[in-house]
Amino acid sequence: MWTFKQVLTFIRFASPHAFRLIFSALGRSIWMVVLSVIALFRGLGVTSDHLAERWLEEALNIGFPPLWEVQLRATFRILARLTIILGWALLLFTEWHVVNYTLRWIFG
User: Fold this and answer.
1) CA distance 24 to 95
2) What is the distance between the alpha carbons of residues 48 and 86, in angstroms, rounded to a whole number?
3) How far apart are CA 108 and CA 96, in angstroms?
4) Is the separation of the CB atoms in 88 and 35 below 8 Å?
5) Taking Cα atoms as reference points, which of 56, 62, 57 lies closest to residue 77?
6) Per residue in 6-61, pLDDT tens?
7) What pTM was computed for the model?
8) Which of 21, 41, 71, 81 has its Cβ near the most Cβ atoms within 10 Å?
């Protein structure tokens, strides 16, 4: 009986953190896919430069020294391009599975 109460207590206290982690990861994945779809229409360079400038502006507003602006801009451009490419990979992975399961469902 004691172990059952411990398990229930663990589930009760751990579930909000687990749900927060799941929904946070889901939100970031959706953000990456939306960003990648935008980059399909606007271009990789334009989208990554815009995103890098936005991140740089936020970093400078938080309190990073303006002396690091060149290095931060280059780092954020690389991170933005990697984020978009990772979003394309996630989109391709999801699309492949949706098509595969749909074809299996339709054609048996």
Assistant:
1) 21
2) 13
3) 17
4) no
5) 56
6) 988 888 999 999 999 999 999 998 988 899 999 999 999 999 999 999 999 999 99
7) 0.75
8) 81
CA-CA distances (angstroms) from residue 9 to 1, 16, 63, 80?
Answer: 12, 12, 42, 42
What are the tokens at 51?
């995103």
Going by C-beta distance under 8 Å and a sequence separation of 6 or more, which residues neighbour residue 32?
Answer: 83, 84, 86, 87, 90
Can you tell me the distance from the alpha carbon of 46 to that of 28, in angstroms, rounded to the nearest whole number?
21
| Two structure tokens written together for 39 | 């980059």
CA distances, 15 to each of 3, 7, 20, 22, 28 (Å): 18, 12, 8, 10, 20
Query: What distance lies between CA 94 and its chain's CA centroid?
Result: 14
What string of DSSP letters covers 39-97? Answer: HHHH-HHHHHHHHHHHHHHHHHHHT--GGGHHHHHHHHHHHHHHHHHHHHHHHHHHHHH
CA dist., res. 40 & res. 83, Å (int): 13
Residue 1 is given by DSSP the state -
